Amino acid sequence: MAKKSTAKTQTGTQSALITTTGSAPALIPIDPDPQSAFVLHPEYDLVEGKAHSHIAHRTHLYIALAAVIVCLLSLWLAVRQAEANAALDARSGRAPAEVIDRRFEEGNRDIHRRWFITYRFGLPDGRTFSREVSVDAAEYDFYFVGSRLVIKFLPDQPELNTLLERRLEAVEADLLWFMVIVPPLLALPVLLWALAQNILLTQYERRGVVVRGEVVECFGEERASHYYVRLRYQFLLPDLKIRRGTAHYMRDDLRGAKLPEKGTQIAVLYLNDWFYRLL
Question: How do the domains of the chain map onto residue ranges?
Fold first, then answer.
Protein backbone atom coordinates (compact mmCIF):
# COMPACT_ATOMS: atom_id res chain seq x y z
CA MET A 1 0.00 0.00 0.00
CA ALA A 2 1.21 3.46 -0.76
CA LYS A 3 2.63 5.56 1.98
CA LYS A 4 0.01 8.18 2.74
CA SER A 5 0.33 11.89 3.22
CA THR A 6 -1.88 14.88 2.48
CA ALA A 7 -0.95 18.29 1.28
CA LYS A 8 -2.89 21.16 -0.21
CA THR A 9 -1.75 22.73 -3.46
CA GLN A 10 0.37 25.80 -3.11
CA THR A 11 0.34 28.84 -5.37
CA GLY A 12 2.73 28.43 -8.24
CA THR A 13 2.92 24.62 -8.11
CA GLN A 14 4.38 23.43 -11.38
CA SER A 15 2.68 20.19 -12.28
CA ALA A 16 1.16 18.53 -15.29
CA LEU A 17 -1.91 17.95 -13.15
CA ILE A 18 -2.82 21.62 -12.85
CA THR A 19 -2.46 24.38 -15.42
CA THR A 20 -2.06 27.65 -13.57
CA THR A 21 -3.77 30.53 -15.33
CA GLY A 22 -5.26 33.82 -14.26
CA SER A 23 -8.77 32.55 -14.81
CA ALA A 24 -10.71 29.86 -12.98
CA PRO A 25 -9.49 26.37 -13.88
CA ALA A 26 -11.45 24.44 -16.44
CA LEU A 27 -12.83 20.99 -15.76
CA ILE A 28 -9.81 18.78 -15.17
CA PRO A 29 -9.97 15.17 -16.39
CA ILE A 30 -8.93 12.77 -13.66
CA ASP A 31 -9.22 9.51 -15.57
CA PRO A 32 -5.83 8.07 -16.60
CA ASP A 33 -5.07 7.36 -20.22
CA PRO A 34 -4.66 3.56 -20.53
CA GLN A 35 -2.27 4.00 -23.45
CA SER A 36 0.20 6.38 -21.80
CA ALA A 37 -0.08 5.67 -18.07
CA PHE A 38 2.86 3.82 -16.49
CA VAL A 39 1.63 0.87 -14.40
CA LEU A 40 4.04 -0.19 -11.65
CA HIS A 41 2.16 -3.42 -10.89
CA PRO A 42 2.02 -5.36 -14.17
CA GLU A 43 -0.86 -7.55 -12.99
CA TYR A 44 -3.20 -4.58 -13.52
CA ASP A 45 -4.84 -3.47 -16.78
CA LEU A 46 -6.54 -0.11 -17.25
CA VAL A 47 -9.77 -0.45 -19.18
CA GLU A 48 -12.30 2.39 -19.42
CA GLY A 49 -11.17 4.00 -16.18
CA LYS A 50 -11.27 0.72 -14.27
CA ALA A 51 -8.43 -1.38 -12.87
CA HIS A 52 -8.60 -5.07 -13.71
CA SER A 53 -6.19 -7.53 -12.11
CA HIS A 54 -4.93 -10.76 -13.69
CA ILE A 55 -4.62 -12.38 -10.26
CA ALA A 56 -6.83 -12.60 -7.19
CA HIS A 57 -5.45 -10.39 -4.45
CA ARG A 58 -6.46 -12.71 -1.63
CA THR A 59 -3.02 -13.81 -0.43
CA HIS A 60 -3.93 -12.70 3.09
CA LEU A 61 -6.71 -15.30 3.17
CA TYR A 62 -4.22 -18.07 2.41
CA ILE A 63 -1.95 -16.76 5.17
CA ALA A 64 -4.88 -16.77 7.61
CA LEU A 65 -5.81 -20.30 6.52
CA ALA A 66 -2.21 -21.44 7.08
CA ALA A 67 -2.25 -19.89 10.57
CA VAL A 68 -5.48 -21.72 11.44
CA ILE A 69 -4.07 -25.01 10.13
CA VAL A 70 -0.91 -24.58 12.22
CA CYS A 71 -3.04 -23.89 15.33
CA LEU A 72 -5.23 -26.92 14.78
CA LEU A 73 -2.23 -29.13 14.08
CA SER A 74 -0.48 -27.92 17.23
CA LEU A 75 -3.62 -28.57 19.32
CA TRP A 76 -4.05 -32.02 17.79
CA LEU A 77 -0.42 -32.96 18.47
CA ALA A 78 -0.66 -31.68 22.05
CA VAL A 79 -3.83 -33.70 22.72
CA ARG A 80 -2.36 -36.84 21.17
CA GLN A 81 0.83 -36.49 23.19
CA ALA A 82 -1.14 -35.88 26.40
CA GLU A 83 -3.04 -39.11 25.72
CA ALA A 84 0.26 -40.91 25.09
CA ASN A 85 1.67 -39.55 28.35
CA ALA A 86 -1.38 -40.78 30.24
CA ALA A 87 -0.98 -44.24 28.70
CA LEU A 88 2.71 -44.33 29.68
CA ASP A 89 1.94 -43.33 33.25
CA ALA A 90 -0.81 -45.97 33.50
CA ARG A 91 1.56 -48.83 32.68
CA SER A 92 4.56 -47.58 34.67
CA GLY A 93 6.33 -49.78 37.20
CA ARG A 94 7.65 -48.96 40.69
CA ALA A 95 11.12 -49.37 42.12
CA PRO A 96 13.01 -48.27 45.26
CA ALA A 97 15.72 -45.65 44.71
CA GLU A 98 18.38 -43.81 46.71
CA VAL A 99 19.41 -40.15 46.56
CA ILE A 100 23.09 -40.06 45.62
CA ASP A 101 23.61 -36.32 45.04
CA ARG A 102 21.97 -32.94 45.43
CA ARG A 103 22.88 -29.45 44.26
CA PHE A 104 21.64 -25.89 44.31
CA GLU A 105 21.91 -23.19 41.65
CA GLU A 106 22.03 -19.64 42.95
CA GLY A 107 20.42 -16.88 40.90
CA ASN A 108 20.23 -13.11 40.98
CA ARG A 109 16.56 -13.38 41.89
CA ASP A 110 14.53 -15.90 43.84
CA ILE A 111 12.78 -17.00 40.66
CA HIS A 112 16.13 -18.00 39.15
CA ARG A 113 17.08 -20.30 42.03
CA ARG A 114 16.91 -24.01 41.24
CA TRP A 115 17.28 -27.19 43.28
CA PHE A 116 18.25 -30.64 41.98
CA ILE A 117 18.59 -34.16 43.35
CA THR A 118 20.08 -37.22 41.69
CA TYR A 119 18.70 -40.66 42.49
CA ARG A 120 19.73 -44.16 41.48
CA PHE A 121 17.67 -47.35 41.22
CA GLY A 122 18.30 -50.93 40.13
CA LEU A 123 16.27 -53.58 38.33
CA PRO A 124 16.10 -57.33 39.04
CA ASP A 125 18.21 -58.01 35.95
CA GLY A 126 21.12 -56.11 37.50
CA ARG A 127 20.87 -52.93 35.46
CA THR A 128 21.08 -49.63 37.32
CA PHE A 129 19.88 -46.20 36.24
CA SER A 130 20.31 -42.72 37.63
CA ARG A 131 18.68 -39.39 36.88
CA GLU A 132 18.89 -35.80 38.04
CA VAL A 133 15.55 -34.07 38.51
CA SER A 134 14.54 -30.56 39.49
CA VAL A 135 12.66 -30.19 42.78
CA ASP A 136 11.25 -27.30 44.77
CA ALA A 137 12.82 -25.94 47.94
CA ALA A 138 10.66 -28.03 50.30
CA GLU A 139 11.48 -31.25 48.48
CA TYR A 140 15.16 -30.33 48.41
CA ASP A 141 15.21 -30.06 52.22
CA PHE A 142 13.41 -33.39 52.49
CA TYR A 143 15.70 -35.36 50.15
CA PHE A 144 19.25 -35.67 51.49
CA VAL A 145 22.05 -37.90 50.26
CA GLY A 146 21.31 -41.48 51.30
CA SER A 147 17.55 -41.00 51.72
CA ARG A 148 15.28 -43.63 50.22
CA LEU A 149 12.40 -42.96 47.85
CA VAL A 150 10.18 -44.72 45.33
CA ILE A 151 10.26 -43.89 41.63
CA LYS A 152 8.15 -44.91 38.67
CA PHE A 153 9.61 -46.11 35.39
CA LEU A 154 8.56 -47.55 32.06
CA PRO A 155 9.25 -51.31 32.15
CA ASP A 156 10.36 -51.56 28.52
CA GLN A 157 12.22 -48.23 28.68
CA PRO A 158 13.64 -47.85 32.22
CA GLU A 159 15.61 -44.72 31.30
CA LEU A 160 12.22 -42.99 31.23
CA ASN A 161 11.58 -42.54 34.96
CA THR A 162 10.54 -39.93 37.51
CA LEU A 163 9.53 -39.42 41.11
CA LEU A 164 6.50 -41.40 42.24
CA GLU A 165 4.29 -38.35 42.83
CA ARG A 166 4.87 -37.07 39.30
CA ARG A 167 3.43 -38.16 36.00
CA LEU A 168 5.62 -40.23 33.72
CA GLU A 169 5.83 -38.12 30.57
CA ALA A 170 7.64 -38.64 27.30
CA VAL A 171 6.99 -34.94 26.60
CA GLU A 172 6.74 -32.60 29.56
CA ALA A 173 3.39 -31.00 30.32
CA ASP A 174 4.90 -27.49 30.16
CA LEU A 175 5.75 -28.02 26.50
CA LEU A 176 2.25 -29.34 25.80
CA TRP A 177 0.70 -26.26 27.38
CA PHE A 178 3.02 -24.15 25.23
CA MET A 179 1.71 -25.96 22.14
CA VAL A 180 -1.88 -25.31 23.23
CA ILE A 181 -1.59 -21.64 24.20
CA VAL A 182 1.13 -19.99 22.10
CA PRO A 183 0.06 -20.84 18.51
CA PRO A 184 -3.48 -19.42 18.95
CA LEU A 185 -2.04 -16.29 20.55
CA LEU A 186 0.31 -15.84 17.61
CA ALA A 187 -2.40 -16.62 15.07
CA LEU A 188 -4.92 -14.12 16.46
CA PRO A 189 -3.07 -11.01 15.13
CA VAL A 190 -2.70 -12.76 11.76
CA LEU A 191 -6.44 -13.45 11.62
CA LEU A 192 -7.30 -9.87 12.58
CA TRP A 193 -4.87 -8.58 9.93
CA ALA A 194 -6.42 -10.88 7.31
CA LEU A 195 -9.91 -9.70 8.23
CA ALA A 196 -8.84 -6.05 7.92
CA GLN A 197 -7.17 -6.72 4.57
CA ASN A 198 -10.26 -8.49 3.28
CA ILE A 199 -12.50 -5.59 4.28
CA LEU A 200 -10.09 -3.11 2.70
CA LEU A 201 -9.83 -5.00 -0.59
CA THR A 202 -13.60 -5.35 -0.73
CA GLN A 203 -13.94 -1.60 -0.28
CA TYR A 204 -11.34 -0.98 -2.98
CA GLU A 205 -13.30 -3.18 -5.38
CA ARG A 206 -16.68 -1.62 -4.59
CA ARG A 207 -15.86 2.02 -3.97
CA GLY A 208 -12.35 2.59 -5.28
CA VAL A 209 -11.89 5.13 -8.08
CA VAL A 210 -9.01 5.09 -10.55
CA VAL A 211 -7.57 8.62 -10.89
CA ARG A 212 -4.75 10.12 -12.90
CA GLY A 213 -1.44 10.99 -11.28
CA GLU A 214 2.13 11.77 -12.24
CA VAL A 215 5.63 10.61 -11.37
CA VAL A 216 7.58 12.92 -9.06
CA GLU A 217 10.70 10.75 -8.86
CA CYS A 218 11.54 7.23 -10.01
CA PHE A 219 14.68 5.15 -9.64
CA GLY A 220 15.67 1.50 -9.56
CA GLU A 221 17.85 -0.42 -7.12
CA GLU A 222 19.35 -3.87 -6.91
CA ARG A 223 18.44 -5.81 -3.81
CA ALA A 224 19.18 -9.50 -3.14
CA SER A 225 19.58 -10.31 -6.87
CA HIS A 226 16.25 -8.60 -7.71
CA TYR A 227 15.53 -5.23 -9.25
CA TYR A 228 13.14 -2.91 -7.44
CA VAL A 229 11.54 0.21 -8.83
CA ARG A 230 10.94 2.90 -6.21
CA LEU A 231 8.58 5.69 -7.15
CA ARG A 232 7.30 8.92 -5.61
CA TYR A 233 4.09 10.23 -7.09
CA GLN A 234 1.24 12.69 -6.72
CA PHE A 235 -2.32 12.76 -8.00
CA LEU A 236 -5.16 15.21 -8.20
CA LEU A 237 -8.72 14.82 -6.94
CA PRO A 238 -11.83 16.68 -8.11
CA ASP A 239 -11.57 18.98 -5.07
CA LEU A 240 -8.24 20.22 -6.58
CA LYS A 241 -6.21 18.87 -3.68
CA ILE A 242 -3.06 16.94 -4.37
CA ARG A 243 -2.29 13.71 -2.57
CA ARG A 244 1.21 12.30 -2.53
CA GLY A 245 2.63 8.86 -1.87
CA THR A 246 5.50 6.46 -2.43
CA ALA A 247 5.57 2.91 -3.72
CA HIS A 248 8.10 0.25 -4.62
CA TYR A 249 7.76 -3.07 -6.37
CA MET A 250 10.01 -5.81 -7.70
CA ARG A 251 10.33 -5.42 -11.47
CA ASP A 252 13.15 -7.59 -12.80
CA ASP A 253 11.76 -6.99 -16.29
CA LEU A 254 12.72 -3.30 -16.05
CA ARG A 255 16.37 -3.93 -15.21
CA GLY A 256 18.37 -1.91 -17.73
CA ALA A 257 15.24 -0.28 -19.19
CA LYS A 258 14.46 3.43 -19.19
CA LEU A 259 12.35 4.28 -16.16
CA PRO A 260 9.50 6.79 -16.29
CA GLU A 261 10.60 10.39 -16.00
CA LYS A 262 9.16 13.12 -13.84
CA GLY A 263 5.69 14.04 -15.05
CA THR A 264 4.94 10.62 -16.56
CA GLN A 265 1.29 9.74 -16.14
CA ILE A 266 0.38 7.03 -13.63
CA ALA A 267 -2.87 5.58 -12.26
CA VAL A 268 -3.92 5.49 -8.61
CA LEU A 269 -6.71 3.47 -7.04
CA TYR A 270 -8.25 5.92 -4.57
CA LEU A 271 -10.58 5.02 -1.71
CA ASN A 272 -10.20 7.96 0.66
CA ASP A 273 -7.51 10.25 2.01
CA TRP A 274 -6.11 7.43 4.14
CA PHE A 275 -6.27 4.53 1.72
CA TYR A 276 -5.01 4.65 -1.85
CA ARG A 277 -2.52 2.64 -3.85
CA LEU A 278 -0.47 3.08 -6.97
CA LEU A 279 -1.41 0.68 -9.74
Answer: 5-55+207-278, 65-180
